[in-house]
Amino acid sequence: MPALLLVGEAPGPNGCRFSGIPFTNEHQLFHDLLPFKGQPTSRADKLYAEVSANVMWETIGRCHPHFFLWNSIPFHPHHQDDYLSIRTPKTSEIRAHLHVLEALLTHLKPAHVLAIGRKAENALKRLGAKTVYIRHPSHGGVKQFKHGVRQYIQEHKICPLPPQIP
Fold first, then answer.
1. What CATH number corresponds to the domain at position 80?
2. Cβ–Cβ < 8 Å for 104, 129
3. pLDDT for 165 beyond 80
4. pTM
């Protein structure tokens, strides 16, 4: 079982919505940018990609398979009739899917849990999970995210990471 569970807020419209894997996008799956391969699922002419997915795998990809990625809710929240829009999940949506996150925690029994963003932190706290908050990489949080995740992984010796390149 993986030692580290990273829990995000919700699937994004350009990543998990089409890849099916949190913090992972079609472009990464199809172009051998990950330790596993996949196929596109969208019907778009261009493969979907998202910054958060790229930042996540750039930061912790070398730790595979010592981590597991998940979201507070398993489905992409969007605005009505705009299926590729981005919307923060409602508290009621997070509450409605807590049983999925709880089952995952029970099954994986991770030694370490990182909450990527405040919504994830709140969901994990509702379940009584011991977690550490890490800034989400979106909306200007890339540097803080990379620093927080790398520092945590190194301090807890989860896997060896190469030195940070400024």
1. 3.40.470.10
2. no
3. no
4. 0.93
